[in-house]
Amino acid sequence: MSARGSSCLSHVLPHYDVVCGVVELNGRILCVRKSETKYAYTSHRWEFPGGKIESGELPEASLRRELIEELGLEVQVLRHLLTVEHVYPDFSIRLRAYHCRPVGNELQLREHEALRWLLVEELGTLSWCDADAPIAQFLVGTTF
Predict the structure, then answer these.
(1) What H or E segment, with its residue span, contains residue 49?
(2) What pLDDT shows up at residue 10?
């Protein structure tokens, strides 16, 4: 291959399959703010809690595991809400959002710097990570 041809090769971004919980309690939704990350475009932005699906893991099982790891929170996964595909500058994700209810009252911030329980009509007041913003928009007008 010529040098000219090799310069046409595109760079493939890492891709991650991710789950998040729209954790609802008494009509309010759990929102968490990320701590400092290696990317300015996700640092200190709001998200729905969750994380990466590990190889061989079902999305619902991954979500339950991630919420226990990040928040010490056990949940009942009720139903899939929507899936968002998003390309960030350094990676792409497929984010599956699930409606969940907490099981018990334990909640500890282990990886995030803040949390809020908001009504769906208040979700637009937060500065969301780009992949989470469509989920927040979808939820406005949704009744639980």
Answers:
(1) none
(2) 54
In the chain, where are the structural domains located?
14-139
Token pair 């595909």: residue: 85
d(CA 39, CA 131): 14
Check residue 142 and give its pLDDT.
79
Q: Which residue has the tokens 């979808």?
A: 138
State how far the Cα of 49 lies from the Cα of 51, in Å rounded to an integer: 7
pLDDT digits (tens, 9 = 90+) for 94-111: 999 999 999 987 899 999
Lookup: tokens for 126: 């937060």
Architecture of domain 14-139: Alpha-Beta Complex (3.90)
Residue 64 to residue 116: CA distance in whole angstroms: 20
